């Protein structure tokens, strides 16, 4: 926490809040974008010889439209992508339906390759397309949607972002008020805040709670209130291995401002 205000008889410390909201808000926006803007399905429809290929997002929003003619296509084929390494990143094998024009590049029904375990479903789609292209009469529509992985990623990302916005990223506040003779610790979320107060006379001193990790090689501390009845109240929940100097400065400021003694921790 950093000093934010010292005026009159009040001293305030709190950590950042806006940056956390922006970070988790961007994650939530990314999750929504996956649902809205990532093409994961395709709809191919024909009325006699005139056709249209529509690519859509996981929630069914149309993203692009491509007019087609049955007499310009030689048929539909299954195209399999093999696992390979590209820039040291593995690409999983997959399969997709592609429309093969008489000239030019193949036109994929979906931009991505679906899982190999859906080959039988794609074969049925391929045969249905070829049957209509052989005799392009009447209305024909086929739809393929493979959005499981997109939904899984969007769900994980969105769930993490919502948890961070609602619960996981509170702003922590410390305020010392000499006029009201109290010290307050509080947490603030976007939906509200909680605060606990102690009269200054109930607080015996402040200190740093020390713990060692990685077999004693890593030293971590967090600031602590010690009440006159021996109860300890953490000012911050988390320990830190890099903020000890800042914690000491904060507790020293409180000592000078309110007369609450700061006792350095005993070294083990």
Q: Could you explain how this protein is built, in words?
A:
Keywords: Membrane, Transmembrane, Transmembrane helix. The protein is of the alpha+beta class and about 270 residues long. The chain has 2 domains: about 1-15 and about 170-265, PH-domain like; about 40-145, no CATH class. It is about 25% helix and about 45% strand. The protein has helices at about 20-35, 120-135, 150-170, 245-260, and strands spanning about 1-5, 10-15, 40-45, 50-55, 60-70, 75-80, 85, 90, 95-100, 105-110, 140-145, 170-175, 180-190, 190-200, 205-215, 220-225, 230-235, 260-265. The strands form 5 sheets. The protein has a 5-stranded antiparallel β-sheet. The protein has a 4-stranded antiparallel β-sheet with strand order 5-4-3-11, covered by helices on one side. Helix 1 (about 20-35) runs antiparallel to helix 3 (about 150-170).
Unreliable sequence segments = 84-89
Q: What count of structural domains?
A: 2
Helix fraction, binned, reads: 25-40%
Work out the strand percent: 35-45%
Count every beta strand, where a strand is a DSSP E run of 2 or more residues. 18
Structural class by helix and strand composition: alpha+beta
Task: Please report the distance between the alpha carbons of the first and last residues.
Answer: 26 Å
Keywords: Membrane, Transmembrane, Transmembrane helix
Transmembrane segments: 21-47, 149-169
